[in-house]
Every structure is written in C-alpha cells, then in structure tokens.
Write a structure and sequence with these properties.
The complex is a heterodimer.
Chain A: H1 4-18, E1 26-32, E2 35-37, E3 40-44, E4 48-53, E5 59-63, E6 69-72, E7 77-81, E8 86-91, E9 99-105
Parallel strand pairs in A: 1-4, 3-9
Antiparallel strand pairs in A: 1-2, 4-7, 5-6, 5-8, 8-9
Chain B: H1 7-21, H2 28-52, H3 56-83, H4 91-108, H5 112-141, H6 145-171
The complex binds copper (II) ion.
Copper (II) ion binds at residues 59, 92, 94-95, 98 of chain A.
C-alpha cells in the first residue's frame, strides 16, 4: 500500500488530470457524533462544500494553512465555495480531535 | 506540578468503584441528575476561568467548556422532559455540588499563571473522573436507550475535553 502522503498526491494528480471545466459540484461533509466524514474528500476550485453539522455542539472546519475557517452552529448546514487549490488539512478548533483532509484540484 | 485531586473528583471516583461493588445501581432519574450536576459544575468553573484566566488558550478552553456542557445539559433537559422523567436529587449529586463549591472558592484565591495552571489541572482531573464514572457506572446503569446514548455522546465529548485540557496544560509549563 502506498504511504498516505503519496496516496494523497496521486489522488490530487488524478483529480487534476481528469478535471474538466464542468459545472461546479456540491460536496457534502458531515460532522456527526464528533467525527468528520469523509475524512478525506476531493473537490475542485469553484465547488461548493455543504458542511452538515448533525451534532448538538458547534463545530468548525479550520484549515491549518489558513485557507478557510467555517463555523457550524449546532444542527445547522453551512455552505462555502472553494477558492484555492491545495491539499488542506483541517480540524475543529473546538474539538481538535476532529481532523480531516480536503484535496482541492485547480 | 502534581494535581491534588479535589474532593469532588474523589467522590466521583468512589462513585465508580464503591457503588458498583455494592450493586447499588443508580436509577435513570438519579443518573440524569448526576450527569446534569456534573455539567453545571464544569460550567461554573469555566465561567470563573473566563473572568480570571490570563492565558488566551485557557480562556478559549473555558469558553468551549461553557459552550459544550451547556449544549449537553440542554439536550439532557429536553430528553427528561420528553421521557417525563423528573431528575432526582441524590447524595452523589449533593456531594459533588458541595465539593465543587469548595474547589471554586479555593481557585478564586489564586491569580495569574498560578490560577491558570490550577484550573486546567483540575479540568484534566475532573474530566478524567467524570469519564470514569460515565464508563463504569452511569452508562452501564442507564436503562433508557436515549439516555444511554446521550451519556455515550457525552463521554466521547468529555474525553476530547480531557485531551484538550491536557494539551493546554502542557502549553503552560
Ligand atoms: Cu467540534
């Protein structure tokens, strides 16, 4: 099996290679019982992420590199549009155990 | 710095062992009361920390404690209302409240970094004790599935709080 980092890079490359200038997609990322799923998601610049918080607590999706910081009130869905490509590790500022990776193709 | 276990924590730890040994299972109305009380205690400690803490990570941690524990307690109140259960005061809840009040008074006397360290150290120990009680006594004793499920969510959340507190504590060294 490939190391995770390599896998991510490969995923990013494939995603980049097959990217067609199609209409932007909407991708759902769910926070449920203090878990982010999917833990690894891929998207393209211009896509919309629908951040769905099923918990009774507030969460955030905070990029470690500062690219985004989305606040999700309890039991609410928040959307954001991806503006910048990159492999972004993000976490919840309130519950730092909640971590995930979003790979954004140009 | 070594953590001196507060009396409240000792009471919770005892609750785990002794009560189980006697087979004295708390009832759902008692469990609801104990869990709610444990949340109220942490919220009070956090509110004190928000006014007293000097370190910004400590303050942010305390704000998180208010936010999360209030959310869980609100959910607990909604649940007991729905189940038509009246939380029942009991010796464990009384002991916890009394001893938490003492701890709050003790922390009130401290200042600056000394306060920050003592608050965070107590948070680590307190969450550890609450999690132990949830795991060994409260969750196994709960008979209603929704109550059990809320306690399990609480456990997961509070385990995160404990790690978060440990992380903040490490940053204060
Ligand atoms: Cu969170």
């Amino acid at each position: 099996m490939l190391p995770r980092r390599t896998f991510l890079i490969v995923t990013a490359l494939i995603a980049g290679a097959i990217a067609v200038p199609a209409h932007a997609a909407t991708i759902q990322i769910v926070m449920d019982d203090l878990v982010v799923s999917p833990a690894q998601a891929t998207a393209k610049v211009g896509d919309t992420i629908e951040w769905i918080n099923k918990d009774i607590f507030a969460h955030t999706a905070t990029a470690r590199n500062g690219d985004f910081d989305v606040a999700m009130p309890p039991k609410k869905t928040v959307t954001s549009v991806l503006k910048k490509a990159g492999t972004v590790e993000y976490y919840c500022r309130f519950h730092p155990n909640m971590k995930a990776v979003l790979t954004i193709a140009p | 710095m070594f953590v001196r276990l507060s009396a409240a924590i000792a009471a919770l730890s005892l609750l785990g062992g002794a009560a189980l040994a006697q087979g004295a299972k708390p009832t759902d109305p008692q469990i609801a009361h104990i869990a709610y009380t444990a949340g109220v205690i942490d919220i009070a400690a956090a509110k004190q920390a928000i006014t007293k803490a000097s370190n910004k990570d400590v303050k942010a941690f305390a704000e998180g404690m208010v936010r999360d524990h209030e959310a869980v307690n609100k959910q607990a109140l909604d649940l007991v209302k729905k189940l038509k259960v009246t939380p029942e005061d009991n010796d464990t809840s009384k002991t916890l409240s009394k001893q938490a009040a003492d701890k709050l008074a003790e922390l009130a006397k401290l200042k600056g970094t000394e306060y920050d360290k003592a608050y965070v150290a107590n948070e680590v120990a307190y969450h550890k004790a609450v999690n132990g009680a949830l795991e060994t006594l409260l969750i196994p004793s709960a008979s209603n599935d929704e109550l059990k499920s809320l306690l399990q969510t609480g456990l997961k959340l509070f385990q995160g709080h404990q790690q978060h507190a440990e992380h903040v504590a490490a940053g204060l060294k």
